[in-house]
From TrEMBL:
UniProt-recorded name of the protein: Uncharacterized protein
Lineage: Bacteria, Pseudomonadati, Bacteroidota, Flavobacteriia, Flavobacteriales
This protein's UniProt keywords: Membrane, Transmembrane, Transmembrane helix
Native species: Nonlabens dokdonensis
Transmembrane annotation, as ranges: 5-22, 28-46, 53-72, 87-110
Amino acid sequence: MIKKILFKLPEYYFIIILFLAGFTPPFYVHYLSLIFIAVLVLQIVFKNKTSGLLLGGIAFFGNLFFLAALFSEFNDFTEFNSEAQRFIIIGITIWVLNLIASVTMIYRYVKIKTRSNQRIKYY
């Protein structure tokens, strides 16, 4: 039961992250965030293996760029004060959560069995 819930969390987590990233007060959400949220909702509904692996892979590699940007911005601090410490701790926490979510998503869609009529036939 808990395993089933944990495997469904990555898409919901990414929906929340995308909403928070695209939200601008008062009451405006960027249209690209809404498009990506719609794609994730469709993934939750249809559970397509190919798109699930693609979304998980994009999230994983995007997370690597996030880590590079995090350390690049961290190097802009002239001294390691409480603000720099808070920046790196929160950034690495978000990075670890994103990494866990993307790897869980990839793992779940790798384990899905495809029916013979769902396979792509190459002629």
